[in-house]
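Example 3.2
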Amino acid sequence: MKKAIVLLSGGLDSATSAAQAKADGYNVIAVSFRYGQRHERELEAARRVAQALGITEHFVVDVNLSQWGGSALTDPSVAVPTEGVKPGEIPVTYVPGRNTVFIAIALSLAEARGAEAIYLGINAVDYSGYPDCRPEYLEAYQRLAALSSKAGLEGRAPRLAAPLVMDSKVDIIRRALRLGVPILETWSCYQGGEEPCGVCDSCRIRDKALVAAGRPDLVSRRGRELLGI
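Structure, written as tokens:
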């Protein structure tokens, strides 16, 4: 059976990407990262999502990006913004080099296991302006994948698949529902509390989209309060 590596953060987008890989007929190997993020709640979510989707091989890789700071997600002294993102501005929640590092590790695993594809949950529509979530970034990385490995030189470079890259968040939620993604097990909040904060950029985009998709029942408690539902 053909294999695919899936970068599984524990969030809604990566969980939907994993479910899509399975629907596309791949035997999925999941990879999550302990990269010095504010909390480990998302890693627990990734574990639960993998279990719910029947993914039996799930790696958790330690890559400590918090040592040099540079992001609100890895440096507790930098506040997570709650007032939205200004157009054209890359927010402080951007983690320098994160996707570049993660995809490189996924490429190593893909070559070692003979995987044909790497599925990514990146999105260039309802996102926070991150430079490493754009189609042109993926295109450049695909070229690198073909040049940087034995598999690539032999014409077998893994395909970087980003099935959600041009979907709106509402589209992603509808896809997730069709694919049976355990949405309530996913964790999108930038904070690490007992419940989603409802006010960070990730929470607000997710909660509004759930309402627009006709699933206000899946909105967080704090989100329901803020949206008046």
